[in-house]
Records
---
Amino acid sequence: MVERLSLGPASVSELAKPLPMTLSAVVQHLKVLEEAGLVTSQKVGRVRTCTLDIGAMTQVERWVAERKRFWEQQYDQLEAYLARTAPQEGEQ
Amino acid sequence: MTVTNAMFTIERTLKASPARVFAAYSSLEAKSAWFKTPSDIETLNRDFDFRVGGVERFRARWPSGMVSDFQATYHDIVENERIILVYDLFHDADKLSVSLMTLEFRAEGDGTRLIHTEQGTYLSGGVEAVKGREHGTTWHVENLVALIEGREAKPFS
């Protein structure tokens, strides 16, 4: 997706077309990219066009986004740990 | 050197009681079971004194030779409810940030809403010094892209 965007702006459906994922999964991924500040999007009529915007981020913004991603990854581990150590029924 | 203030929040709904989530943070044994660090780093200092005024430190050497140093002090601990700490992050001699981290554990049904808020002061001289090393721009972008595209991100190395 990012590779495609590095060639130039594209609509959401253009991005989704070659990918083996549902449109809603593509939209979800774009949302994360937008939150990370890597992609901006603009809606004209019924078409949402996405643009890669890595250059707009400062080094610090990127670092902050990375810290956030780092913690998200740690919390995936926390979830797995809590599931692994969950008390069996009747034990709690 | 410039100073940038930034804040971010992470929220997770966890299938565990606040007491179990709190316990995952309050001992070194439990925290080490989930807080993932790559196997190829060399731990130089690991302190864990979980009480108000106590210090947590994690200093390690990475395969590149870079030494990262996380130095935290616990400022507020309310059992099963919240943990507040302040930490400095260094890479070699460069201080990258000074951050206030607040962890809240709110009971929600059978589970817990975890709210992790960080208010940080980022020192760009330090952050830019990172550029060109393993932790530089390429690595950040590659990992963000890996995350988005559903691939496993490279470990924090």
Note: Chain A touches chain B at residues 1-2, 21, 29, 32-33, 36, 38, 54, 58-75, 77-83, 85-86 (CB under 8 Å).
---
Amino acid sequence: MSAITAHKDPKLPPPVDLPEGADWVKALALFDPHVAETLVAVARTLYPHEGLPERVYRRTVFHFDAMAAKAPGAAQTFAEFVDLVDGALPMAFLELTESYRLQVLKGIEATTAFQLVQRSTVRFLYDDLEVWQAFGYEGASVHLGGYVKRGFNDLDWLPDPPPGV
Amino acid sequence: MTAYELDDDGVVVIIGSGAGGGTLANELAQRGIDVVLLEAGKHLTPDDFVNDEWGGYEMLSWLDKRTSSGNWRVAKDHPTAPSWSCQVVGGTTTHWSACCYRLIADEMRAKTVYGDIPGTTLIDWPITLEEIEPYYDLAEAKMGVTRTNGLPGLPANNNFKVMYAGASALGLNVSTGRHAINSVPYDGRPATTQDGFTITGDKVGSRWSTLNVEIPRGLATGKLELRPQSRAVQIEHDEAGKASAVVYVDAAGVTHRQKARAVVMAGNCVESSRLLLHSKSARFPDGLANGYGHVGRHYLRHLIQTVWSVFDKPVYMHRGEIMGGMIDDFVRHDPGRGFAGGYYIEMNSMGLPTTAAFMDPGWWGRDFVSVIEQYANMAGIFMSGEDMPQADNRVTLTDEVDAYGVPVANIHYDDHPNDLKMRVHGYKQLTAIHKAAGAKRSIEAPAYPASHNLGSNRMAAKPEDGVLDGNCRAWEVPNLFITDGSNFATGGACNPTLTIVALAIRQADFMAKQMAAGEL
């Protein structure tokens, strides 16, 4: 953990608070538990941050579910994606170990379905307040007066440039 | 509030309220000219804006579908969003990072200075630097550009300290640059609080935009009417071949026809070309002002790329103004480098969400993870360079129509060999600067969706070479003007907004004189 505090803009809705444990899937509008857990495993295989808890990947899939609930085209693509990763080898994606999961994902990299899932994972995983906190991104600042008095020029491991440069 | 009648044919109708259209609207209103300003987006206030990268993107961006083709990387990474501009009152000035550099004389004589380069459609500008200079002065004063008019430069932030250490070790000429962001209070607007969110709307108002400066002042004259959420779909002309009206659709979906004394297009490059191509008639079967086939062609987007580097210790690059650093050693054309044209090196900062999204779209796995986990220790450095005009790099219409019945635009772009040479040269310099400051690893990030959209309705000394004359007036339609970046004859290297604003002020002078003389 870095020595910062991350903030979301107070005008935005607060981060979603999912139940701990297997019950988290009950918060979803569309995905069934198998689809949801498979997508969580895919998100973690794509972006395997050892230090991040399962709940940040679940929140990412929660956002996929919201996308799918809004757009039938996206819902269909997520469903196709899960069929693709489950059908690639004789065992379901969830049952595979990391090396086989990688093999399956590399095999479908060129598909539209993979691109939607990979891009959406980046879109939502790295927009998560807990991830910001973990990786040292402080986020919204205007409501705190910006960074002018909160370290915009506090880097001290290089010499300061001459004044007015 | 001033309100003009739809059948009032004495008004100048401007389409688009960004750097070009918003500035021109105010400049004409200040000269006593009646103006209707059509803007496709909403009229937001600083209170509406958010300090959030994706939240701001979704609030401000022009998100209508486009398609792309050609061998540019953008077509692979961002196939349905190849160009990035805003749909909101203030246009892309609600988003821009406020770098303000002037074109140099050689850039405005690109054909003469660079010579014959196979595959390019280089021309010289029909106007000289000397002709624009007085307008650059006016633009810098109204925008409050740092290091002009006695205004101090932006202070060094953390990311700049990294850039400065590397660049000065290499003997390069580095400063925090020039920006339309207040380093001290100016023109009724406060100094920056270094909040780092100028590009999601600027809640503080320390940065110039047409939303917070030009449009309010234009409205205050009583000569300007702003119509937000008004989507232009067609430009009509009369029997004499003069632009006579703009057809637009309002927020309720109702279609209107605003008559016009003159029409000015300022909807950003892609939309201006798209609207001209769509405005077909018996007299202009290939689109308005397109008798010579130049509308949509010679599209430019600058050679934009970033290097993100990881250091041993924290940088927190998100703290403070995001592009407050500039190196101008590579701006001048130097044949010894093996390519034509030049480029600016600028500082670049992004938050974690967009650093992750744009560092290398499509990159996943443990290697990516090992880099992005060190976000706190990352610094960014960027270049904006001149790309070569090519006839087939162009905006065209597809068979698919949007919700307003206007064909979706396709943007085709193939990289020219000169572009590749400059990109390689640039990546080497950017990486060398960070290495000299102690970078452990540097990542070459590709271009993001094009935000410096230029040239697709270019001005030229003769109609055989471009859509517009040196006054940004269509050769074929004497009361039709363009005042966005599509009017650039060639791209130059620097961020284009200052030049767009200077040309808009010049445009206002020209139009006012023509009107006074009874010629417009």
Note: The first helix of chain B runs from residue 19 to 30.
